[in-house]
Amino acid sequence: MPKEKQTTKKQEKYTLILDAAETLMKKKGLYSLNMDEVSYFSNLAKGTLYLYFRSKEEILAALALKARILLLAHFEKAVLNENQPIQQLKAIIHANYTFLKNNPLYYELVSFYEINDRETETEEMSAVILRITELVIGIIKNGQLAGEIDSRIDPSILSFTMWGMTVGIMQLLKVKAATISNHPNLSENIVLDNYIKVFLDGIK
Amino acid sequence: MPKEKQTTKKQEKYTLILDAAETLMKKKGLYSLNMDEVSYFSNLAKGTLYLYFRSKEEILAALALKARILLLAHFEKAVLNENQPIQQLKAIIHANYTFLKNNPLYYELVSFYEINDRETETEEMSAVILRITELVIGIIKNGQLAGEIDSRIDPSILSFTMWGMTVGIMQLLKVKAATISNHPNLSENIVLDNYIKVFLDGIK
Amino acid sequence: MPKEKQTTKKQEKYTLILDAAETLMKKKGLYSLNMDEVSYFSNLAKGTLYLYFRSKEEILAALALKARILLLAHFEKAVLNENQPIQQLKAIIHANYTFLKNNPLYYELVSFYEINDRETETEEMSAVILRITELVIGIIKNGQLAGEIDSRIDPSILSFTMWGMTVGIMQLLKVKAATISNHPNLSENIVLDNYIKVFLDGIK
Amino acid sequence: MPKEKQTTKKQEKYTLILDAAETLMKKKGLYSLNMDEVSYFSNLAKGTLYLYFRSKEEILAALALKARILLLAHFEKAVLNENQPIQQLKAIIHANYTFLKNNPLYYELVSFYEINDRETETEEMSAVILRITELVIGIIKNGQLAGEIDSRIDPSILSFTMWGMTVGIMQLLKVKAATISNHPNLSENIVLDNYIKVFLDGIK
DNA sequence: TATGAATGAGCGTTCATTCAT
DNA sequence: AATGAATGAACGCTCATTCAT
After folding, report:
1. Number of domains present in the structure of chain A
2. CB of D112 within 8 Å of any CB in chain C?
3. Is A161 exposed, middle or buried (0-12, 13-18, 19+ CB in 10 A)?
4. pLDDT at residue C161 above 90?
5. pTM beyond 0.85, yes or no
6. DNA-binding region at which residues (chains A, B, C, D) (predicted)?
7. Same domain, residue pair C199 and C180
8. Which of A24, A202, C23, D182 is surrounded by the most beta carbons within 10 Å?
9. CB burial class (10 A; 0-12, 13-18, 19+) of residue A8?
């Protein structure tokens, strides 16, 4: 069998396992993933899982990577739809929100590794976040050139800050969903828009 | 034995257990707390633990409450040291940061219940968060009266937003501590100050 | 304090405990009785329970005795209402059935000690069963004298047999209640009457 | 390894566990079975037990099923040895008795599920009881055709009644073994024969 | 490469009984 | 006599990982 084919086959199983894990997590949540079920739903023996992933943790990390890549793609697409830097930043925050809404599991995975200091975070994973950061830095620089963003702010620091704030707001929206919907004056969109307003006004 | 003394003794055991749990969590992290070790380190039989707490979860909740109360106290003290609303908000964010630095476990406990929708969150626990919210709302209102904060922003929404953003930034500082310290232009304080600047400029 | 009064008081507590245990068992079943709840519902400290009963088992035994005494009383009353031996036996079986229906817990207690060979069965408890046996023996003898019951059967053996068969039928009615009510031709009364018929025809 | 062999091996372990459980129950009684000891006596890790049985309860159920099947076989064999319906019924009751004597644990298991309404009673288990019922019904019908059993009695009701009475008598013999052997006029056989006589006379 | 049987430490919780006060 | 805090063995069950085949 040619090596390529083998690699393809290997890749297939790898994906198979990841898909099973993902399906299971969507059904039962991030924390109740267990190898027995992954084995069952991937139609692979339990031992086989360990030929593709050194541990359960590694499966999680792989999914987290996938989630980050998807988020990056989401951001890139959102940015392309806009011309003005400010609108692009806005678009990114909105993309973040829709991503959270449409892929709660992926967002949870992203947060999970953002919040907890996992020792398994690989360079590959960090690289994606770096690309997100660079995307944002680029926009900020453009905004500063266009005079729409305060030039005294260091772009990379701002990008960093923006990421932290936005993740914080997203978590708030997720956890306090009930509180928000019960409040008369509140809605998720109002909170989100308020955040965007404060942020954009803050960087002018 | 007078009833008072007994109550004191009971209180002592309660604290003993909580202290043991706290020490253990500081050593091994929030998630690896287990009743066997709590029993061992508190010099109490495992069954005894259940005379003071109905479940392991309740121990966690008690510690989370303690953490929240401490955080509130921290905030109140910080606010008292300042006269101007803007300075007070700044002080709160700084207090949040020093709290995180000095009591990482407590901060983790606060976050834990902020991020995960625990069913065990009691009214008592929510009440503390409410008091924090009200503290902030009060300051915002003062700031609006003094013309230092944009009057068009709803105070309670802003308080909400501020909480989300700040928690997000704190997590960022915690998780990305290594990244930050490696960066040449970055330091935790710079990120923090940048956040504060953006936030305060944003609400002017 | 006169000794009598003390005894009375002692008796009161004894009854208190038994009542609490009974109430609890009615609520949650024979097997889930636990000393914590007995303590709580009797308003007596847990240690106090052990001043009146050497063990939980002893509480069970006391209740089983009470149940047997009540059953005996039930039988005696039933017998008094009839003149003819055959009718009296019939009445006893019916009394057994109504007792089961009205006091399922008591019946369970009676059965419990009939089915399992409890080491705690006291002479007092056996004595009650003996009195039931003797009651039945008396009736059988009368029936034999009256020519209504086959004289060749030894009365005490028959009494023994009758007790076994009846308890068996009662259990059947209890456990197979669902099966019986689903069956088109069956009802508890039909089974009971059939049993009575077979039994009475069998001893003629 | 051929699949057949594996199945055999799997079957062997299943049996191993069941045997360990059985041995333990014979030693210490139905109720004190625990998984630690089953693990120890089967030379299998505790986790392994759960590969073959979903729960402790399932082990009990499996043994109860085994007991029922054995009892049915016992009955069928007893019936084959006789030609006359009345003799066959007699043989069944005797078979019941010898079964109790030879396999007290199995009998306890049969009773256990007869007395307590276990939610785990499977269709397979009910099916065996049904076959016993049908065996008896068939005999009764034959007896009625031959004019040896009262035709006015509904066979299925009678079968039902007979099962209840017989189980009751067996329990009596088991629990009151001591009482019986102490009595001058009594012996287990006398009680049994008396029961059979009453029953058979009753259905004529 | 693939299997899946086997492992066994680990977990949270219960509860009858004891005993110092 | 009365208390109730304290005990600690016991229990059923889970699950990531290993390894002989």
Report:
1. 2
2. no
3. buried
4. yes
5. yes
6. 34-53
7. yes
8. A202
9. exposed
Residues 23-52 of A with CB under 7 A from strand E: 44-48, 50-51
Chain D 96..125 CB hits on strand F (< 7 A): none
Verify that C47 and C88 share a domain, yes or no. no
D35, burial (CB in 10 Å: exposed 0-12, middle 13-18, buried 19+) = middle
- From A17, A33, A53, the end of a domain falls on A53
Mean pLDDT of D116-126: 82
Residues 48-107 of D with CB under 7 A from strand E: 48, 50-51
CB contact under 8 A, C198 and D160: no
> Do A103 and A22 lie in a common domain?
no
Identify whether residues D131 and D184 lie together within a single domain.
Answer: yes
User: Residue A12 CA to F14 C1' — how many Å?
Assistant: 30
Domain termination residue (choose one: A53, A72, A97) = A53
Reported as a single tens digit per residue, the pLDDT across A84-96 is 999 999 999 999 9
* C-beta atoms surrounding A94 within 10 Å: 14
My answer on whether A44 and A108 are in the same domain is: no
How many angstroms separate the CA atoms of D186 and C154, rounded?
Answer: 10
Which nucleotides on strand F sit less than 7 A from a protein beta carbon? 1-21
Instruction: Name the helix (H) or strand (E) containing A3.
Output: helix A3-28
> Which residues, including other chains, have CB under 8 Å from residue C177's CB and lie 6 or more apart?
C188
- Which residues neighbour D72 within 8 Å (Cβ) at sequence distance 6 or greater? D128, D131, D132, D135
Listed range (A6-15, A60-69, C56-65, D140-149) with the worst mean pLDDT: A6-15
What is residue A1's predicted lDDT score, i.e. its pLDDT?
46
- pLDDT confidence of D4, banded at 50, 70, 90? low
- Interchain CB contact of D72 with C (< 8 Å): no
Rounded distance in angstroms from the CA atom of residue B110 to the C1' atom of nucleotide F20: 48
Smallest Cα distance from C132 to chain D, Å: 15
CATH number at residue B76: 1.10.357.10
* B181 near A CB under 8 A: no
d(CA D78, CA D87): 10
B196 with B128, same domain: the answer is yes
Whether any strand F atom is under 7 angstroms from the Cβ of B40: the reply reads: no
The number of CA neighbours under 13 Å toward the Cβ of C140 is: 23
Render the burial of A110-141: b for 16+ CB within 10 Å, e for the rest: bbbbbbbebeebeeebeebbeebbebbbebbb
Cβ neighbours of residue A20 under 8 Å, at least 6 residues apart?
Answer: A37, A38, A40, A41, A42
**Cβ-nearest to D172 among C126, C163, C194:** C163
D72 and D158 co-located in one domain: yes
Structural domain span for residue C25: 1-53
| Cβ of residue D161 closer than 8 Å to a chain C Cβ | yes
Distance B50 CA to E13 C1' (A): 9
Q: Cβ(D49)–Cβ(D38) under 8 Å?
A: yes
Q: Are residues D10 and D75 located together in one domain of the fold?
A: no
Q: Is D114 on the interface with C (CB under 8 A)?
A: yes
Q: Which residues contact B179 (CB under 8 A, 6 or more apart)?
A: A126, B186
Q: What is the pLDDT of residues A153-184, one digit of tens each?
A: 999 999 989 999 999 999 899 888 888 888 88
Q: In sequence order, which residues have a C-beta less than 8 Å from that of residue A155 and are 6 or more positions away?
A: A137, A140, A141, A144
Answer positive or negative: Cα dihedral of B105, B106, B108, B113: positive
Amino acid letter, D25 = M
